[in-house]
Amino acid sequence: FCFWPSEGTWEYADLSSALKTAAEGDAGALSAEALAGMDEARLRALLGGRDLPDMPTRVRLLREVGSVLNDKYGGSAARLVEECGGSAVALVAAVVRDFPGFRDEAHHPSVG
Q1: How confident is the model at residue 64 (pLDDT cuts 50, 70, 90)?
Q2: What does the angle CA 97 – CA 13 – CA 10 come to, to the nearest 5 degrees?
Q3: pTM of the prediction?
Q4: What is residue 56's DSSP assignment?
Q5: C-alpha distances in angstroms, 44 versus 33, 38, 69, 70?
Q6: Where are the alpha helices (DSSP H) in 11-54?
Q7: Burial of 112 by CB count in 10 Å (0-12 exposed, 13-18 middle, 19+ buried)?
Q8: Between the CA atoms of 85, 30, 35 and 45, what dihedral angle is there, to the nearest 10 degrees?
């Protein structure tokens, strides 16, 4: 996300508030299982009826997060963190390795 102030768009406070409200209303709303089964209608409902920019991509990434957490970490983000042994470097490496959607990279043709 890029939260540049702009009238009528999402700001960080909007997103965090909507997710907090969703989690308070349903403790399992943001579980790995729920994320793995996410669709646009469910995400919109979690966000109080609002859309995010590029909803299909957001849903794809949420499904990826849920699936990876389920498959590799027993459905627990806390387990992912624990397995990194308190190392931020190990956590970043695990996120980049296991969650393709977080690999913010580009390849330039002039670089071998």
Answers
A1: very high
A2: 80
A3: 0.84
A4: H
A5: 17, 10, 22, 23
A6: 12-25, 32-36, 40-46
A7: exposed
A8: -160
